[in-house]
Amino acid sequence: MKKQFLIFIFLVFVLFMFNKILLRDFSTNTTVTTDDLLNKQKVTSQKLFEKNWRVIRDNFYDSKLNGQDWSYWKKHYAGKILTDEDANVAINTMIESLDDPYSKYLDKKSYSEQTSSISSKITGIGVNITEHSGKTLVVSVIEGTPAQKAGIKSGDLVVKVNGKDITGYKIEQVADIVRGPEGTSVQLTILRKKKTLVKNIVRKEIKIKTVKSKILNDIGYIQILSFIGTTTSDEFLSALDKTKDTKGLIIDLRGNAGGLLPNAVFISNLFISKGNIVSIVGRSGIKRNVYAQKNTSVIDKPVLLLVDEGSASASEIFSGALKDYHKATLVGTKTFGKGMVQKIIPMPNETGLNLTIAKYLTPQGHDINKKGIEPDVVVKFTERDIKQKRDVQLNKAKIMMSEMIAQNKN
To answer: What count of Cα atoms within 13 Å lies in the side-chain half-sphere of residue 54?
Structure first.
């Protein structure tokens, strides 16, 4: 599979949690913002390392820290951290010793990119690119963006940026050149069917949509691309409104790698009127439940969830809750199996730490980490399906939903 890279958004493969959201008091009516996600305190590189060392020691979900003497790292790097790059290497080396694939230290640039993904607002031109035989290929253009208005099309090859030949550049390098402050311009030289075109494009703030919807006869189809955006819950409510006159819902979670816990809880609460939505078990072993808030407008029409091995984290909280309460039938293949909870911790020098602080259980107490959630109806793609671009999972869901609607009429 070709490596793809979104210039404007980095889908982070962790279940994010904000400092003041849910873990403090498990309130589900807290507004999700990015205001608390930036620490502008300036400290020396050595102090930056030591701050991360303490936070990991005191908050990592495994209090035994993978069975090691954590003081070793502080002694090992004492007086050796001279630059923030030194701190970056040392902190990530320290984190690797925890044997936890989800905990990660982010330098200023990476942390800024992550925060942009969470806010669902970025500054750029609005294209999705991929690396193809050493060249930069435009995979898709986001609707309503400067790139679309400039006439950039899927299939265009970007050969130069600001007059500089980018042949052989990595996608990340191209992205760095194309990005820039709002209101500034970038010049793309593209190759389209052997014709060279030069496009001058003014960068602007772009809002990323995480929810899409459409109506398929009597069936409402809602695709949640990610739970990561601060606008995801509002987008889902809008999608529900657009499909309110349908008799059944298909919600597509395939390839949804997760996002913000508050979003998963909020959307689950639209289907579950009372009871525990998810349980969180911290390093002390104490289980804390996140309960549904009273909701007089719970969705009661038939619901099918499409899931696959790319459905992870917040997607599994949502699908696990609806499955345990028999609020939806799951169709597709087994989910990824990520049952660990990360907290975003803003660190000095505008850096950040994604740290695993707990694990979660479904309402019935199932630990799905490294196990995944089995669908009620297994539907797999064959090579022929893929070659013919036939979505057999969605087709099966539509057939099932039509039968469910027909049964409700009788």
So the answer is: 7
Domain ranges in the chain are 7-120+209-410, 123-207
In sequence order, the β-bridge partners of residue 135 are: 132
Q: Which of 293, 287, 304, 302 is nearest to 366 (CA)?
A: 287
**Amino acid letter, residue 151:** G
Phi, psi of 190 (to 5 degrees): -120, 155
Q: Which residue has the tokens 């002390």?
A: 284
- Burial class for 193, CB neighbours closer than 10 Å (0-12, 13-18, 19+): exposed
CATH architecture of 7-120+209-410: Alpha-Beta Complex (3.90)
Q: Is 141 exposed, middle or buried (0-12, 13-18, 19+ CB in 10 A)?
A: buried
Strands (E), 103-231: 104-106, 121-124, 127-132, 135-141, 157-161, 164-165, 185-192, 195-202, 204-207, 211-216, 219-224
Nearest to 123 by CA among 200, 8, 38: 8
Q: Which residue has the tokens 């609707």?
A: 143
> Of 282, 264, 352, which Cα lies nearest the Cα of 36?
352
Q: Which amino acid is at 250?
A: I
Annotated catalytic sites, by residue?
313, 324, 338
Amino acid at the residue 90: A
With a cut of 80, say whether residue 177 has pLDDT above it.
Answer: yes
More confident: 114 or 263:
263
- Identify the pLDDT of residue 22: 39
Total-model pTM: 0.74
Can you tell me the distance from the alpha carbon of 323 to that of 251, in angstroms, rounded to the nearest whole number?
13
3, 329 Cβ separation under 8 angstroms: no
- The CATH architecture that domain 123-207 belongs to is Roll (2.30)
